Amino acid sequence: xxxxxxxxxxxxxxxxxxxxxxxxxxxxxxxxxxxxxxxxxxxxxxxxxxxxxxxxxxxxxxxxxxxxxxxxxxxxxxxxxxxxxxxxxxxxxxxxxxxxxxxxxxxxxxxxxxxxxxxxxxxxxxxxxxxxxxxxxxxxxxxxxxxxxxxxxxxxxxxxxxxxxxxxxxxxxxxxxxxxxxxxxxxxxxxxxxxxxxxxxxxxxxxxxxxxxxxxxxxxxxxxxxxxxxxxxxxxxxxxxxxxxxxxxxxxxxxxxxxxxxxxxxxxxxxxxxxxxxxxxxxxxxxxxxxxxxxxxxxxxxxxxxxxxxxxxxxxxxxxxxxxxxxxxxxxxxxxxxxxxxxxxxxxxxxxxxxxxxxxxxxxxxxxxxxxxxxxxxxxxxxxx
Length: 385
Description:
The protein is mainly α. It is built from 11 helices and no strands. InterPro entries: 7tm6_olfct_rcpt.
């Protein structure tokens, strides 16, 4: 299977998810579709049901926490929906850059660039195919708890703790309606999670591929400069250098667009993820509701994906800066040396992803968050002891 086939498989998954959640990234003519109105209606229903249930059980704090354990992820998905809708042209432009600058230029594995493109396309394809079933399997895990309660205690409980307004789930039809609404909304949320997180993985990994390609071209230019036929290859050197400058400019614009989209998403991800983790840590400590462990796992997996991708971009950006700094610029003509200075000046602003500018999206930031969460967990355990 070729690299473009692997890439198209991922795109087909995202197209299916986008139709389900009404984002329609590949439909340039419509801003809102029937699916968009449907998903916004589901947002209103979900948050209203949560508010109604919290108000109903406001004197039972543990039950309120059980109701709100998924609210953080739901709020995060709602924000991601509006960010994606607002930035549809930018996302389509990024995907078009990937196709034009990588897959169209290097369609086979005969060159170094083609081999790298294929390897990353395969890795990206495997990651997306792992990510989708992993998220979807959480619904099966949540469904086990009501079954366990029914067979062990002989009573029925809903899939999640929030109730549908003015519907008594203790009746047969009320129970069926409550579970239908909860499952339907959760499935739509899964489609949103797969699409949002999968697109971040796909775009960031292909940005790393483009940095690899740029470094290969810079290395080839350096070897040509250090060869014995520099004078004879003067025009070729100039042409290769201008291509490298063009690639670097495209690379900067590419990651600027990713940062414009991903920065806000990451900020919401961190705040809602920390809220969900703290809520579920308390539930894990004081209740036997094992579904809270599943929410913990989802939150940790999601945050790990984002911070790992950001850290990979930062490491590759550092390698790119080193390759530019070690480039034999002194063998250039005077005019090309001036152009090289502009490239060096741009290295003062490295290619990184951030949490909306507040912190780098790196493992160092992630470790700081985990340290704070660990201290919170220890405080809860000491309090219970």
